[in-house]
## 1
Amino acid sequence: MSAFPVRLDDQMKAYSQDLRERVFADRDAGEPTAAVARRYRVSPAWVRRLMQRRRETGEIAPRPKPPRPAKLAPHRDRLRALVAEKSDRTLAELRDLLGVDCCLATIHNELRRLRLSFKKSR
């Protein structure tokens, strides 16, 4: 097992600005990359990339994450029509009628985004 945490971009937040500044301070003081990486439990490659980015662009803040395109964006009109046609369809029924491979939460979130109410009749 490695000495530093594994970063998965979709699951973890960017390293804090405070951590970045401490890494820069230690590297600027002449401490080796490997020692800085061990101290702050980050990968040596991240320290090198951070230093390179500051050298090339002057930026030290985390890059903003690009927005993820909505999976159901191409299906919005059809979703509106399905709810207007019969408002008591379940999320699973809507997903099946759309023919999209996604979880029910995705359908629910898109309905909220579109401000469409759907009610299950008892």
Note: The longest helix spans residues 44-57.
## 2
Amino acid sequence: MKKIILTTAVTLASLPTYSMLAIDDAELSNIEGRAGITIESQLHDTTTIGEVSYTDSDGDGLRHTDSAGIYLSDISIGASSSKSTIDVLNDGTLNINISDIMQGDVWVRDIAMGDANTSFGAVGITNFNYDAAGSYNLRLSPFSPKNDGIKQAALIFDIDMASSSFDFTYVDEAEFSLLGERELFNGNTISYTTQFTDFKALATTVYADDSITDDGRQWIRMDLGSITGSTRLENISFGSVTDGIAATSQVLGSAGFSGIDIDDSSFIALSGHAGSGLVGVDLKVAAKANLDNFYFETNGNRVNFANIAIDTDARGVNGDSNIPFNISMDTVNNGFRKGLQFAISDVSGLSATVRDMSVSQGAGARDIFGSIGIENINFNGGTAEMYVIGRAGSGNTGIETGFSLPDGTTLDFTINDFEYESDLPDAERVADKGGEVRATIEINDFFVGQTIDVVKLEDSEGAALKMTFTGMEGSFDVTNFSAGTRAGSFGRIVVDGMQLRRGYLIVDAIGQ
């Protein structure tokens, strides 16, 4: 919406000025505005923004050199146009519908975390192809969060992507020319085309909510509405550009998902926090969702994960409680380590299951080979920690990531090859068909660290994604280990003091 407002303002400012004549009441009564107004906006040239930043400033209005933050700089938006219809409905709702979008290329040429010099790379959204059957609708509407008759303002989004598409590109070690339209001069790239099919996200409602926690904080809450349709990431590729010349990219494959069903109790809430010298953001996440299918495809061959169910809190009766878990995010800049750190807590019943894992030729018949479930993940009052750190000022060595679980984390693990009467999530299982392996796992002292970088391969073989493991350790206590359809345990397995010192993994596309 910010882009549209800016575009409209620029367009109106460029119009010639005329003198205005008064209209008397009789003439005014003959004008009907019930259908609202339509504004066609156009931006004829590229718009540029020097920097947009979020920092942990102490609020004195000054930018401190040691402030940790997120910095987006050297932003450009190409020439674009759109049509907006604005109407006030009978219930007082301000309704804005945006359509006929001709979107120019959008580039953020430097993304930095920690400080403005620690680059994570560049991102571009280009070749936006808007389907005329789609639209973006925004309502500023009266809303009663508790259904008690007390109303407040809420933003309600209805987005219809129809069959729109766009190209996404991430560039590591990005260098852009300083002339003309600032073309990509050097860098390693990851790119793909996002193709939507009948994709709609309806009734996503954003409003202020002070009832999420007991400390009186105001949270910006987003209730997730109905999401339907399919999305496909086509031609996921690794490539490189040297001295302005792009090498032939290597296509890894394509991926996609379809059949999203999100429970209306699902939401995401955002609020600020302060303490221990840090200023950051808290997120509350509660989600119950089903996904018909997620797949990865290469050379026409697919691996499918179907009938996926996610529940962030399965403790209530039939999983109806849906209590949120918490993610606290802080920016970090302590001289040597610059980036983001996360703390994940209040996890006490998170579950994720995949009913059918299978392989197929394209979207054709599938050979199903089983299901997997990781259920009832419980941190038992502990906190998991995660970080994303910039490795060098120029971004030449990628990023460093790490993840640790709190001691005493427990989960239930199952894998089976049961057969069901149909593909429906609530289908009955066929008796005496297939078996199951089950276990309850307790995890202690778990940590994994790695660096991630997009690198050029030797002998001009293109680019690839390299993940170097800097360490992995942990202890595992496996109980209630059993198999088959009969009750009874095989016993207990304990793995103590596991340590992986160093290793790496390269993800590369096979040449055609």
Note: The first helix runs from residue 2 to 13.
## 3
Amino acid sequence: MNEEKVNIEDSNLINPSTSEKSGYKLSESRGTIKEVEFEKDLHCCSDYEVTVGKMAAFTVDNQNRVFIADIDQVTVHVFSAEGNYLASLGRQGNGPGEYHALTPNTSMYIHPDRIYITDGFYQGRAHVYLLDDLSFSHTINLVADNKNDYAELKGYFPGRMYPLNEAKYLVAYQRSRFDYQDSESIIQYMIQDSTGTIVTGAILEQKDLVNSVYNPPNGGTRMTSFPFYGKSLLTVSDEDHLFAVHDSKEIKIDIYDTKGEHIRTFELPFGNKPLTRRGLIEHYQNHENLARLDQYEGENVALRMIREEQNLPEYWPALESIFNDDENRLWVSTIVEDFEIYEWWVLEETGELITRFEWPRDEPIEVVRNGYMYTRQTDEDTGLQQVVRYRIELNG
């Protein structure tokens, strides 16, 4: 496919929820890039057999089957490429293949002929199912048997896990935010084998989220991690390359191998959106869901915290999220002037820009596989979330 320069002055967003074919113009030319279009292909997933409750995570395999972790029903629903219900994986319980809980922190990975589903409020284990017949294989204890041999892991617990080749796993160990509150903490990435044993010390370290602390008049402590302070990001390719963003304030991505050895770094220029206290307060006032931190403190807790913040940054971060697709391309969402959208950049693993497009923030892109893009969208009538599939068309 030949590439050509695209020079388009305007940036037009066509809402995919109202258009069967959505075209996204590039805001300006930044080198040799391609135009991209997305054609809506499928709404998934509910039928007469099952209605998905509150969705935790979802993923897609090479057959375009969709796997949805259901928080309410504590099971993983499986739908065919046509959106028909096939089966469920596991249920609530303590037995093999049963979940203590499925939560917003639950993660699911396809690698390569199995699906890994993390379980519990602190992701203490992962269940493995075979993709050929959807049968249960085994459970991995993510709290390593030899964790106490590593003094640096005292007070740390497993967070996300990433399946690697040769039956190994990358496990992110983190402290509870209530332990470190507004002090600094790090994420330590350890390699574990199929028995759950740590086989090497931390191969990579990243800073954890910055916490803001609020002490309400009626006592207690409230904490939140405001997005304007930035964060670290990580994604792992099928070739076991770790793509790490140590600070989302800039588009700077470091690549490591599973020994923690640095392979290369690439950086891309980006104009960060300026941040002011007045603009931040206005933004939170215009979004009720942001101003309400929890059901106990009522509205405007976030606004009170923002007014008291002593060291607000001058700019918003550059990056919100990053993940690999099945062709080892990087999909990166960037924070731009319009708070209703993210501008997504698709990159070769070398850092070369393939294309760039705008997409609504409230319809997050979560999986790209087999030439399709899968997003999470909320039905306006029922309030339930659904998975929507788009065919990707790269032109140029």
Note: Residues 1-33+226-270+313-361 form one domain.
